[in-house]
Amino acid sequence: MRRVALVGAVSLAAAACATATPTVDPTSANPVGGTDSVPLAQQYLNVSGQGVAQLDHQLEQYGSPAPGVKIALWDAQVHDRKCTIGPAIIAVGRTGFLTAGHCATPDTEHPERWSGAVGPVAAQVHPDGKGALELGVIEQISATPTDDAGVIWTRAAAGDDTIAGTWKVGGVMTVAPLQRLPAGTPVCVDGAISKVVCSPLVSVTGTQIRTRLATKEGDSGAPVFVVDARTKSAILIGVHRGWEGNEGVATAIEPILSRVGAKVVVAA
Known about the structure:
The protein has two helices and 20 strands. By secondary structure, the protein is mostly beta strands. It has a domain at 2-10 and 21-53 and 166-254: Trypsin-like serine proteases (Thrombin, subunit H, Beta Barrel), CATH 2.40.10.
């Protein structure tokens, strides 16, 4: 086991809050965590390479179920693909995590691995780096280039209100203010393979977020967020899908939450 701490660690233990998820509009007259005199792109921090990561021998994040941790995908045929756990969510009577919707589909690039009937794709983590803990089946909400989302409903979700052991989740940025963020705003991802990486925003079109490419294969499903420069809290904006050309692609989180009837877990 290798644990890397580039900034002070913050406990991941937190109780799930059943109140409505706070939403953030940084372009309003009194933005949460913002300052009217500061240019919008400068209200958020580039925190690349920071945070706390528990790394395995492949230098990939593993551990108990939490945002940013690597999940192995498997069914009756194969279990050699990787994705990343996304934001922790709560709904009436259940808890879970978001991830990418395409993580619930067979490996279309290697069809020879999927002979015979293919059942639901399940996800598991390795809390001690060895033994597996099954989280549950990935429920695909959508899996298109512009809308890619899935959910894992699991009792193993522990109400994680922190990203990378460092930035408390302060809320969700809704689509309208997200679309008004200027190009160049540092957008961050906590991927199982890349760890915490930030890159400049390129555009937001509809519910698709585009940034300069900074992630790797296996980061799909990771939480996408901005870090408020004043409060040092993480504002969730999306779920990482992957990349197209030299741009990273994510799906805005607010519509996903609406479709599954859930809220993200936020710090008290």
